[in-house]
Amino acid sequence: MGKDVIIALDFDSREKTLAFLDRFTEEKPFVKVGMELFYAEGPAIVREIRRRGHRIFLDLKLHDIPNTVKKAMAALSALDVDIINLHAAGTAAMMTAALEGLTRPDGTRPLLIAVTQLTSTDQERMERELLIHAPLEEVVLSYASNAAAAGLDGVVCSPLEAGAIHRRCGASFLTVTPGVRFAGGDAGDQKRVTTPAKARELGSDYIVVGRPITQAENPVAAYRRCVREFVD
Ligand SMILES: O=c1ccn([C@@H]2O[C@H](COP(=O)(O)O)[C@@H](O)[C@H]2O)c(=O)[nH]1
User: Fold this and answer.
1) Residue 206 sits in which domain range?
2) Dihedrals φ, ψ of 45, to 5°?
C-alpha cells in the first residue's frame, strides 16, 4: 500500500454520503466509514460504497473484553473492507482475540490497526482526566509496540508520532493519521494537528481528512489539494 488520502465520510445518512461521493467523477477516493454513518445506516452502506469501487477503512474503534471483540470482529469480517480498527487500550489480549475473530476461514482478513491516543487528546487532558502521567509520545509508542507485538498491521496516531513509530515498529508498520488541517485551518476538537505536507515529511502512510474536505465549498478541490500536498 502506498501513501494515500482517506476521506472521513462523517455524514448522518446514505443520501448525504452518496451525494458527496457523486461529486467525484474523475477519481475513486479511499474513504472511511465511522460510527456516525455506520450506526445510522448499518452494514448496507459499507456494501454500497464498496460496490461503487471505493477502498474502505471501517473506523468503529472496538474496545471491550476479548471474547466480545473477537465475536464482533468475526461478524465484521463478512464485510469487504480494507482496514478495520480497535482501541489499543483494550490490551494485547483483546487485540490478539480481535485478530483471531477477524481472520476468515480461508485465512484472509482486512488490515487491523489500533488507535493509540485519540488525536483529540493532549498531554494535559491525558494526565488530568485519564491519569496517565507518561509523556504522550511515550504512551503512543508503547501502545504501538503492544499492537505490533500482538500481530496488528499498524496504528492510528497523529502525524506528529509517525516517524517515531516507524523507527520503533518498522517501516512497514502502518501509520494512519487523522488530525490533519490545511495551514491556518480551524483545528476544531483536534489537538495534535499538522498539515498534509508536514504529515508527508513526518512519514505518515495515510492521512485521514474529514471536515477540511467534507465541509469545504469545493470538496473535490480540497481533496485534490490534500493529494497534491501529501502524495504527489
Ligand atoms: O485519533 C483519532 C481517531 C480517529 N479519528 C477520526 O478521523 C476523522 C477526522 O475528522 P476531521 O473532521 O478531519 O477532524 C474523524 O472521523 C474521527 O472520528 C480522529 O480524528 N482521531
Assistant:
1) 4-230
2) -70, -35
Q: How far is CA 93 from the centre of its chain?
A: 21
Q: How many other CB atoms sit within 10 Å of the CB of residue 26? A: 6
Choose the catalytic residue: 59, 70, 153, 191: 59
Taking the whole predicted model, whether its pTM rises above 0.90 is answered as yes
Query: Residue 11 sits in a domain of what CATH number?
Result: 3.20.20.70
**Calpha distance 14→44 (Å, rounded):** 9
Establish whether this prediction's ipTM goes over 0.95: yes
Cell of 206: 495515510
Domain count, the chain: 1
Query: Tell me: the pLDDT tens digits for 188-228?
Result: 999 999 999 999 999 999 999 999 999 999 999 999 999 99
Determine which residue's CA is closest to atom 10 belonging to ligand 1: 210
* Catalytic residue, candidates 3, 4, 16, 64: 64
Give the residues surrounding ligand 1 with Cβ less than 6 Å away.
Answer: 8, 10, 34, 115, 118-119, 156, 178, 190, 208-212
